[in-house]
């Protein structure tokens, strides 16, 4: 009985450490994204705080090698974790405002503030294993055995915390309630280990009541000015928001909300964004190329179904395979964006893996999964484009939405160079009033002049959106330029390139 806490504490502490890290990364990802740089910053900070905690825990254990000390460390760590969400939310809202205002100094400052904020809970959690080793040490000649059990139990708890937070609590309840559940677990375990003396119990019960009071109220991130927030939820991958504009247009916003990932209006198909241009992909083929030749579509980055809805309206109920990694976005698409087309087959999976599992050839494969700074590198490589080529029919086309920065086209040019290692021709379309370029790679040799000829030969009863889009595409074509950078599965420095682009853009004088 005396040593039971020694075995429980490492499990609870390991679980709390990893669950807190996962919830912390989710909260930070709502603003700063989930790039390797962000993950490295989060993991690096956590490792630093744990290292400090190991040292302080050892010193603390030598001064007070008692069960009550270990229990107190658990309780104090629980209180620190429980009180963290409120200031974190405040600081991250300031970071989101800085992102909107392109204030690099404020973005960096708020990011550092959030990382520092977690110094206290993570350092206290780092104290728990070394305290448990010392408290559980029955004899000097059994120190190795004691340490082995403690760190094995701590690692087991870490596995529970990692998968429990990533797969259960964050998708189901969000990061804030995950913090709260971790805090309650630590506090209750610590209280039980301290003994039930009336004064101590009253003290920690008061601390337990403080945790719900630290839960931030209201929405996680306010909607843009003039918009109404219809939906908000943290998924395993994103902060998902649906907003409605005064004219009835609905927009899908993710994370910091700088990009609009889908739009919907019940009375309009045309959009002011990038989605329309995907309709033009096959019309670079030699004339006469008509709508009847568009037979099958695959979309990687389905989002809430804007492109799928347009293709269905223009080409009829052709088979569409839509791939979207986030099931919450799929749910939102069906509920708020009219994504109920019976010809749309939705696969919730990673885009590259799911494409490899699909059978048959497609007239068009659309990739709308890039959004600076969130560009999945494994969807940018020569090997991925070869996989897409293998799933295209004769005369097929691959259309990709690529982000750019004013005056900096290096990502567009690198993707172009990579595409040209697989496809013979790439066409480049700069979307007006945006920082987006549509790249269209064709299976055969094609030319811009074909697009003009196919536009002229469209039948009179064609959907007006298609005629409008082909005309706009002709107007917005720019010369295709490739760099000497080719992304491969072995080496794809996409994030390094994007970070350099963003720093250059944000630090430029305005």
Molecular structure report:
The protein is built from 17 helices and twelve strands. The strands form two sheets. Strands 7-6-5-8-9-11-10-12 form an eight-stranded mixed beta sheet, with helices on both faces. The relative contact order is 0.10. With 510 residues, it is an alpha/beta fold. The chain starts with a helix and ends with a helix. The mean pLDDT is 85. The longest helix is centred in the first third of the chain and has 31 residues, at 143-173. It folds into two domains: 4-213, MFS general substrate transporter like domains (Growth Hormone, Chain: A), CATH 1.20.1250; 269-507, Vaccinia Virus protein VP39 (Rossmann fold, 3-Layer(aba) Sandwich), CATH 3.40.50.
Task: Please tell me the CATH architecture of the largest domain by its name.
Answer: 3-Layer(aba) Sandwich
Q: Please report the distance between the alpha carbons of the first and last residues.
A: 67 Å
**CATH class membership of the largest domain:** Alpha Beta
Which spans have pLDDT < 50 for at least 5 consecutive residues? none
Strand content: 5-15%
Tell me the domain tally. 2
Helical run tally: 17
Question: Which labels suit this protein?
Answer:
510 residues, alpha/beta, Growth Hormone, Chain: A, Rossmann fold, 2 domains, eight-stranded mixed sheet, 14% strand
